[in-house]
Design brief:
- The structure holds two protein chains of two kinds.
- By secondary structure, chain A is mainly α.
- Chain A contains 18 helices and three strands.
- Chain A has a three-stranded antiparallel β-sheet, with helices on one face.
- Chain A is globular and about 75 Å long.
- Chain B is about 35% helix and about 20% strand.
- In chain B, strand 21 and strand 22 form a beta hairpin.
- Classes of the chains: A mainly alpha, B alpha+beta.
- Chains A and B meet through helix 8, helix 14, helix 15, helix 16 and helix 17 of A and helix 1 of B.
Chain lengths: ~425, ~625
């Protein structure tokens, strides 16, 4: 067994430094975005910046607790943590508090807790545990389905709570499946669906189907060696037609009006400039203001707490989902680029460490951590800069909120704990 | 592949994000501009506009406070319109009209809702104003004229128009700007610099404190007081003499180029163009197309100079050595020239004429001879004409004087090219253009150019660019006004000319205009002029013109007078010249009978003739 406990405690300091830098920089931006006019005291608990300071301090306690627990605890209790998390999500339907149309919060004497933030590391742990189980072979369909249910359950519950953004984060765990060896075809299928979906929405199901048919016909006639076998091509065609109309139907019947509009704006579907202008003012008001704020920052930004658009509360939700616009306005191109580089370093470092793990459990979990962080990074910053449709999801360490910060802290430090143990693995 | 997919995607995302940032923040950045950020409200503090004093330190123009009600439509909340209209003393229609205009201009920029509130209305309103969200009072200062004279010199200020805003970003809608006279010429000195406070606003347009603790705020810089060269007593006297006449008087101090008076008749009371009645009065003045009171006739009325121009013809001939003071002719009351024996009449009385008597009796024949000799001096008429023209132009004719007055005209001094173009197929010569010799022809001058020419003769060969500015608080004089400009005529040639001008008073055409105790040199002029009535060119009564300077040995004043359609030179212009000179040099007028005659004379009938629609006679007594 492990006799050398002290030397086993080897944290990856690079990750810790990047993490700290992000949290500290994030705090100052929350301060800037929520100070609005009068500044009282850093410790003013009635203001978001005061609370955030408290959240940051308490997350140090969480870090210590997370690192203090025996390393085997996480693997052993993964299923218990997962079950607890599912229960807490389900409990929302009974005890939850509705905010902005989503039932995602528990209200404990003035403190709100968002269980979906904790479901992320719980699911990652459970997935790691399941995949690394000796009984499981992820290359088999039966196990793939089981693993998918493991991820789908919390994702579905969160979707039912009307928090589509967070659901999407769980989809990022696909990268874990792929890394652990599910067939290539899944990836090709995913890319196929993505192209088909975007094409359908941009043009129409009918035109996409005809284009697909045309391409397949040319392939069949000129490039295929065994011209008589037509089955494969037909399957792709039928699948394509079904998917394309399916996407169109889903868009028209399942998505809500504001979601349709956001996608429409992203795909530049509206050509009438008058209507477009009015849509920009209503549907993508936030995005518009956020882009304006970022633009106005220029190369070097306006300086800490000197962003006029931030100070004047021009960007709604700025201290939560749109926090990156504060960075853009006050710190300019250079400051924003540094934030992006910090996120890149964090995610890539975790990925690198994950690949170094000797145990499959640690590796799968590490991959899960990187995937989740990547999803948040991609969706949030992409949205704030207008690269992808508006989807409400926080930017790790920057967006205001206790649950989020705690969730991400635990997510990362469980991995760092696992990693610290890899040298003297049993 | 399985190991690097996520690696690759993460790096790709990072590159896309930094690219997007580059696009937003560098490539298409709206680099922060404190003046155009709708998150910042600018509050202006208008400084005092500089006062205007005359050369003897009497205050001509001061300021009075004015209160404009401004509105920012976006911030307006439902209000008690009845109460509001009562406070402002307007009716509901006016209210709605103004509000509509403000909204059309911009929902978020301040718009002058109602201008020039009286002090009393302001006092009542300011108590209740907090009830009316979106309205506020902007204090400005309006002019307060201490005098009723010199409207054309002092000019006026009015609200900037869009063209002026586009030209100079200093101005905002509702600001006042000089529109005429010294208010234009010295706008930047007089206006000062308005102070600005930058106030940070939030999305609901509420003030949330000074932007960057007021780091960019500026204090207003008060406008500078200026002193102008006008002698307001002389100016007032000139305006009195010119009443019921159209024309201009320009009086200069030859030793400095300072403009002692600049009369444009008819004029108007400058107080008419202040405050709420401004636009009504302005329209009235603007629409008076017979008298054109808004036009400065002393600066912009171009006319043929008539006989005073003979002085320059003589000087040029002397300089070119084609005559001497002793050169003489016999005038047969006509000058016959050219192949076809064309005739120019002369009113000098005929007989033996030399330079001196030529000037004093204004002999057409003598100057025709002098001009002809000058133009025929060189082999080529065009070449001679160019030389002649450059001599004449050295007196500041034919071009802008470069003075500090807001308006002016170039006039016209033809040269060789001018006639080459005019007569492309025809070999023109001195006789073709002989009417220039007596100041008719193609020459055009303004009264201020004539006055300047007279000053140059008085100075024997140089002049200072005429100017209206005497001094600006704490600034030194523009060297353009302190460095003398030389004419191309040698000083020695001026003596016989000045002698001749003196004799105009002693025995010549102005002998009945003598002023006891003052040696005046002058020259009468009569300028033919024409108008078009229903497309037909028709001659009007001649303009009465006079130039003079005095005293002869140490000139203190040089003056040019134009009385439109006043008939011959000594008739009105000459009388006015003598009265003005006496007034300026002695400080009082002894020629009471002459003064009474001039003041009582009205030329109104003369001016209405062309508009009567009936045939009329000209040049009748």
């Amino acid at each position: 067994m492990n006799l050398n406990r002290t030397t086993s405690f080897q944290l990856d300091w690079l990750t810790v430094i990047v993490f700290t830098a992000l949290v500290v920089f994030g705090y100052f931006n929350i301060l800037s975005a929520s100070v609005a006019g009068e500044f009282t005291s850093y410790l003013d608990i009635s203001k978001p910046y005061g609370k955030q300071l408290f959240f940051i301090l308490s997350s140090f306690v969480l870090i210590i607790l997370t690192l203090a627990v025996d390393v085997k605890f996480y693997e052993r209790f993964a299923s218990i943590i997962y079950l607890g998390s599912i229960l807490s999500l389900a409990g929302l339907f009974i005890f939850g508090k509705q905010v902005n149309g989503a039932i995602s919060w528990y209200d404990f004497v003035g403190m709100t807790i968002q269980p979906s933030e904790f479901a992320k590391f719980a699911t990652a742990l459970a997935l790691a545990k399941y995949i690394s189980d000796l009984q499981t072979n992820i290359k088999e369909q039966k196990d793939q389905i089981k693993a998918a249910i493991l991820v789908g359950l919390p994702a579905g519950l969160i979707l039912l709570q009307n928090d589509a953004g967070s659901t999407l984060v769980f989809a990022s765990l696909f990268f874990v499946f792929y890394r652990e060896g599910i067939p290539q075809n899944y990836l090709l299928f995913a890319v196929f669906v993505a192209f088909l979906g975007i094409g359908t929405l941009k043009y129409s199901a009918l035109s996409i189907c005809f284009t697909l048919a045309g391409i397949l016909l040319i392939y069949q006639l000129f490039f295929k060696r065994k011209k008589k076998k037509i089955g494969g091509v037909l399957i792709i065609l039928i699948l394509g037609i079904g998917l394309s109309f399916g996407v169109q139907w889903t868009h028209n019947n399942v998505l809500q009006k504001h979601q349709q509009d956001r996608i429409g704006l992203w795909l530049r579907l509206e050509k009438d400039p008058v209507k477009l202008e009015s849509m920009k003012r209503s549907v993508s008001y936030n995005l518009n203001e956020s882009e304006k704020a970022i633009r106005s920052g220029g190369t070097f930004g306006k300086g800490f707490r000197d962003g006029t658009r931030t100070k004047g509360n021009f960007v709604p939700e700025q201290h939560t989902d749109y926090i990156f616009s504060t960075v853009g306005e006050e710190w300019g191109f250079f400051g924003s680029s540094i934030v992006i580089i910090l996120f890149l370093s964090l995610i890539l470092r975790i990925l690198y460490l994950a690949e170094q793990q000797k145990s499959q459990f640690s590796r799968v979990y590490g991959y899960g951590v990187a995937s989740i962080l990547f999803a948040h990074f991609l969706i949030n910053i992409g949205m704030v800069m207008g690269l992808i449709p508006t989807i409400g999801i926080p930017l790790p360490f920057f967006s205001y909120g206790g649950s989020g910060l705690w969730g991400f802290t635990i997510l990362i430090f469980i991995f760092l704990k696992l990693d610290s143990n890899r040298l003297n693995e049993w | 592949m399985r190991k690097i997919l996520l690696f690759g995607l993460v790096i790709l995302t990072g590159i896309c994000f930094i690219g997007r940032l580059y696009y937003l923040q560098i490539y298409t950045a709206n680099e922060f501009d404190i003046d155009n950020d709708n998150a910042i409200r600018k509050v202006f503090h208008y400084p005092k506009r500089g006062y205007i004093y005359d050369r003897n330190d009497s205050l001509l123009v001061a300021n009075q406070p004015s209160y404009d009600v401004m509105v920012i439509p976006r911030e307006v909340e439902p209000l008690d319109t009845l109460l509001f209209c009562n406070l402002l003393k307007i009716d509901k229609d006016e209210f709605l009209k103004s509000y509509e205009r403000a909204k059309n201009y911009s929902p978020r920029l301040p718009f002058p809702f109602l201008r020039h509130l009286s002090k009393e209305d302001y006092a009542f309103l300011s108590e209740k104003l907090r009830k009316f969200k979106g309205f506020y009072i902007q204090k400005r200062s309006l002019r307060d004229y201490q005098t009723s004279i010199g409207a054309n010199v002092l000019g006026y200020i009015a609200e900037v128009n869009n063209k002026e805003i586009a030209k100079d970003s200093y101005y905002r809608l509702g600001d006042m700007i000089g529109k005429q006279g010294v208010e234009v010429s010295y706008e930047k000195k007089l206006r000062g610099v308005k102070g600005v406070k930058y106030i940070q606003k939030d999305i609901y347009n509420r003030d949330i404190g000074a932007y960057k603790q007021g780091a960019f705020d500026t204090l207003p810089v008060p406008g500078k007081d200026i002193k102008i060269t006008i002698d307001s007593e002389l100016q007032a006297y000139g305006e009195l003499l010119m009443q019921n006449k159209i024309g201009g008087i320009v009086a200069l101090e030859p030793s400095t180029g300072e403009i002692l008076s600049l009369v444009s008749a008819p004029s108007y009371n400058p107080n008419l163009l202040v405050g709420r009645q401004r636009s009504k009065n302005y329209t009235k003045l603007y629409l008076d197309t017979i008298h054109r009171p808004l036009i400065d006739k002393g600066l912009t009325r171009m006319h043929v100079p008539g006989s005073p121009f003979k002085l320059l013809v003589a000087l040029t001939a002397l300089q070119e050595n084609v005559i001497t003071p002793k050169t003489n002719i016999i005038c047969s009351e006509r000058y016959v020239y050219g192949k076809n024996k064309r005739v120019m009449k002369c009113h000098c009385g005929g007989g033996f004429r030399n330079l001196d008597s030529g000037i004093s009796y204004s002999c057409n024949s003598y100057f025709s001879m002098a001009f002809r000799s000058t133009i025929e001096k060189y082999s080529n008429a065009s070449e001679s004409m160019n030389i002649w023209s450059s001599h004449i132009k050295s007196f500041g004719l034919g071009n802008f004087l470069g003075n500090d007055l807001s308006v002016g005209k170039k006039g016209n001094i033809p040269d060789g090219n001018y006639y080459d173009k005019w007569y492309p197929e025809f070999q023109w010569g001195a006789t073709t253009i002989i009417s220039n010799a007596i100041g008719q022809g193609e020459i055009l001058v303004t009264p201020i150019q004539l006055a300047n020419m007279t000053a140059a003769i008085a100075n024997k060969g140089y002049y200072y660019t005429p100017h209206i500015i005497k001094s600006i608080e704490g600034e030194s004089m523009d060297p353009n006004f302190t460095i003398p400009k030389q004419t191309s005529i040698e000083p020695k040639y001026y003596d016989p000319i000045i002698e001749g001008m003196h004799n105009v008073y002693n025995k010549g055409t102005a002998n009945f205009l003598k002023v006891p105790g003052i040696e005046i040199c002058g020259k009468t002029g009569t300028a033919e002029n024409f108008t078009k009535i229903d497309g037909v060119k028709q001659q009007l009564t001649d303009h009465s013109i006079f130039v003079a300077f005095a005293p002869k040995d140490d000139p203190k004043i040089a003056i040019a007078i134009l009385v439109e359609n006043g008939y011959y030179g000594s008739r009105w212009a000459g009388r006015i010249a003598s009265l003005m000179i006496e007034k300026y040099i002695k400080g009082e007028v002894t020629l009471k009978r002459m003064e009474k005659l001039v003041i009582e004379k009205s030329l109104e009938n003369e001016y209405l003739k062309p508009y009567s629609g009936k045939p009329f006679k000209i040049n009748d007594q």
